[in-house]
Design brief:
By secondary structure, the protein is α/β, with parallel strands linked by helices. It has a single domain, classed as Rossmann fold. Helix content is 27%, strand content 27%. The chain has seven helices and 13 strands. It has helices at 60-68, 109-120, 124-133, 149-161, 179-194, 206-212, 260-266, and strands at residues 12-15, 18-21, 27-34, 38-45, 48-53, 75-80, 94-97, 167-171, 198-202, 215-220, 223-229, 234-238, 254-258. The radius of gyration is 20 Å and the shape is globular. The termini are far apart.
């Protein structure tokens, strides 16, 4: 009796309203290499938020570019929810925000936002909600050329994240943000993760790392130097010099210091 090939049924799960393969990592990287920038990088993210930390040239942006499909690896494998980064299946499952973005100076914020909504298939309500998330509803008629660097970054984040896909890939998103913008983005990111979403973010400032992620991937010279809980990367002391227990009580005034491990990775450890 001849046998027929029966299509394999792949179990699916819903993450932030999108269907993804069940029990498949949001990000899976194995033996990844790219020119002289990355060497044998392996990392997996099932969910939650992961910060990429390292000095300039460590490979943080290169890794994000490989995850989003801007670059093609020379060695190793990378997938997003089981799909190749450049595939049509992966595209609606992730959002990417680069370090810097420029909008046509003559366009109004509203025009930029509606164009992004149309490209993503998002509703006007979703676009306006995203703009409100970043505190820019009062800038709808402002032209892009009249926006400050911080407001331009807020607009870029609102435009990219309005459809809230399961995976966010953010390359130093807070570099141009003021304190208010950072807090708004951090709140949105925490809500995203709480709803089952995943986040990979490169960051430099301690307050950014703590605001966005619970885990950190340490990169040095294009290689993985370790993976640690974010709270283990910093030491905290009350301003009078006494040790402070963690988590810190609300309202305490504290001094933050990078741990020896973090200083070594960043190349700032005192000899």
């Amino acid at each position: 009796m001849s046998q027929r090939n029966v299509p394999t049924q792949v179990a699916a799960a819903s993450v932030r309203g999108r269907s993804v393969p069940a029990q498949v990592a949001a990000v899976s990287v194995s033996g990844l290499g790219y020119r002289q920038r990355l060497h044998e990088v392996s990392v997996e993210l099932q969910g939650g938020a992961l910060a990429l930390i390292g000095p300039n040239g460590a490979g943080k942006s290169t890794l994000l570019h490989l995850l989003v499909g801007r670059l093609k690896p020379h060695a190793g494998r990378v997938s997003l929810f089981g799909h190749a980064p450049r595939s049509k299946e992966a595209a609606p499952l992730r959002a990417y925000v680069p370090q810097q973005i420029q909008f046509p100076a003559h366009l109004q914020v509203r025009e930029i936002l509606l164009a992004a909504a149309q490209a993503k298939g998002a509703s006007v309500e979703a676009a306006e909600f995203a703009l409100d998330r970043m505190g820019m509803l009062g800038f709808m008629l402002r032209r892009a050329g009249a926006l400050s660097g911080g407001m331009t970054q807020r607009l870029a984040l609102a435009a990219a994240l309005m459809d809230e896909p399961p995976l966010w890939l953010l390359d130093e998103p807070a570099s141009a943000l003021d304190g208010g913008g950072l807090e708004r983005l951090a709140t949105w990111a925490r809500d995203h993760v709480a709803a089952g979403g995943s986040l990979v973010v490169s960051a430099h400032r301690p307050e950014e790392v703590e605001a966005f992620a619970s885990e950190a991937l340490l990169l040095q010279g294009g290689r993985v130097a370790g993976r640690q809980d974010v709270h283990d990367l910093f030491e905290y002391r009350v301003l009078d010099g006494s040790s402070a227990a963690r988590p810190l009580p609300a309202g305490w005034q504290v001094q933050r210091r990078a741990s020896d491990v973090l200083q070594e990775v960043l190349g700032s450890r005192d000899e």
